Amino acid sequence: MPTMILSIVNESFFSALAVLAIIIAVGAVLGRLAEAVRMPSITGYFVSGLIVGGWLLLSQGESVYDGLAILSNVAIAFIAFELGTRLHRKSLKANFSEVAVIVLMQAIFTIGLVTLLFILFGAPWYMALVVGVIATATSPETIMVLSRKYKTKGHLTNAIMPHIGMDDIVGVILFSVALAIAGAAAAGGSPNPEVAIAEPLLEIVGSIAVGAVIGILLAVFTKLAKRRDPEYKQTFLTETVAAVLLTAAFALHGWQLGEVHFILSPILTPMFMGIFFTNFIPKDLRKENDEAVDAFTPPFILVFFALIGVQFVMEMQGVEAAWWLILILALAYAVVRVAGKQIGIFVGAKIKETDHKVIKFLVRALLPQATVSIGMAQVLLHEESLPEEWRGTLFMVVLIAGILYQFVGPFFSRKALADANEIDPRLMYFNGHPDEHDDHHPEPASSEKK
Question: String of b and e for 394-414 (b: at least 16 CB within 10 Å)?
Fold first, then answer.
């Protein structure tokens, strides 16, 4: 019997690792092909997921996807950490009031318009509110890939990362509150203060505290690393990977304080680890650590987007609502979200009298929506206190809209940076390695943007 069990376990690992290898190999090829036809590599990664997902569905290998799902949590942790390392106190201090006002205006108009849209389509007000909050989130990895590849610099570039970081911090906080309100409303009662206040508060404060402690410890270990050692960058990378995995593990663990059960945010925890880390180490060490991590994370970004494609194929068979309705809702959601963000950016920028580039180009840079929004939608999907038919429908709406944004978002984000003269137009569709043509590159932006 033990031999049989061992054989089953080994076969399960074999299937998962074989599919993972196929995803990475196919994704790398399709990513290069996407660039060859002037599309972002991220689009190719997603298409590879659709192909592998279709193959798993036809071969009845859905269980293999369950074994790979943990990689999405790891990928989100690395992406959130990298976003946090780009939120240095000097850049935040210089633009904080501008960013805060614009993000607040974005949140108000986006939540209001998207909530109204879903109420008009017949969704309960509390479900409409939850999806309205999800609409505020912005995906950081697309801009990080573009900024890293084209070495962008300028007012728009400096504005993008703080906006994305604040967008996601505000979105995650509001999502926790909205979910608690929705759960109480679905049960037919008024929100329990213990649930509506204590649970989201503990999630937020706990995420910040755990992220801060791990980030500061990582900064201390990085400072203690012997830079005379020729392999010190490997030490930086090893310590950082261990810290990111630790935050991902803490975010998967259930916590209990008195009568309140809560979990840490898989986005806020690693993001605040990155924020505290980057603000507790010297500029030169921060830059070298960033270089080491930047060279390590591309496979995780590839796998993350490919798994979105796989998940789409896996989940589409369980949807109860009519597909024509889901597609209409997804299209309307995608359009109304952009409208809400553009109105918010316009109003906020006018209040702060900010650079015209922000009004004109920022909404294009904030189009991509996958990492944070899909993470929220997954939480919504498994929230059993809410109506099942709307959970599945809203999950697919957010997922399809995120996919749509991944097809068009990177193109518009890249074009916005080019139109703002923050990348060399000759590099827009360059497929080689940037360092091979340094004479064609603008100088790298100051690491303070990190």
Answer: bbbbbbbbbbbbbebbbbbbb
Q: What are phi and psi of 114, to 5 degrees?
A: -70, -40
Domain that holds residue 205: 80-304+321-449
Q: What is the DSSP letter of 198?
A: I
How far is Cα 21 from Cα 27, in angstroms, rounded to an integer? Answer: 10
If one counts every other C-beta atom within 10 angstroms of the C-beta of residue 249, the result is 14
- 3-class DSSP state of 263: strand
> Dihedral sign, CA of 26, 32, 33, 38?
positive
266 backbone φψ class: left, alpha, beta (φ>0; ψ -120 to 50): alpha
Q: Average pLDDT of 45-63?
A: 81
Instruction: Report if residue 425 sits inside a domain.
Output: yes
Q: How far is CA 352 from the centre of its chain?
A: 27
256 phi and psi, to 5 degrees?
A: -130, 125
Tally the domains of the chain.
1
Whether residue 29 lies inside any domain: the answer is no
List b or e across 365-381, with b for residues whose CB sees 16 or more CB atoms inside 10 angstroms: bbbbbbbbbbbbbbbbb
Q: Which helix (H) or strand (E) holds 256?
A: strand 254-257
- 260: β partners: 257
Using a 10 angstrom Cβ sphere, with 0-12 exposed, 13-18 middle and 19 or more buried, the burial of residue 235 is middle
**Which CATH number fits the domain that encloses residue 154?**
1.20.1530.20
Instruction: Determine the distance from the C-alpha atom of residue 216 to the mean position of all C-alpha atoms in its chain, rounded to a whole number.
Output: 23
Radius of gyration (C-alpha) of the chain in whole angstroms = 22
**Mean pLDDT calculated for residue range 7-19:** 68
3-state secondary structure of 239: helix
Kindly report, residue by residue over 273-289, the tens digit of the pLDDT. 999 999 988 877 777 77
Q: Is residue 363 part of a domain?
A: yes
Least confident of 137-151, 161-175, 377-391: 137-151
First CA to last CA distance, the chain: 54
Average pLDDT, the chain: 80
In Å, what is the CA distance from 128 to each residue of 5, 15, 216, 319, 337?
Answer: 46, 39, 39, 18, 13
pLDDT for 116 equals 96
**At how many degrees (to 10) do helices 41-58 and 2-36 cross?**
140
CA pair distance 417, 409, nearest whole angstrom: 12
Helix (H) or strand (E) holding 131: helix 125-134
The reported pLDDT for the residue numbered 6 is 45
Place of tokens 């037919």: 188
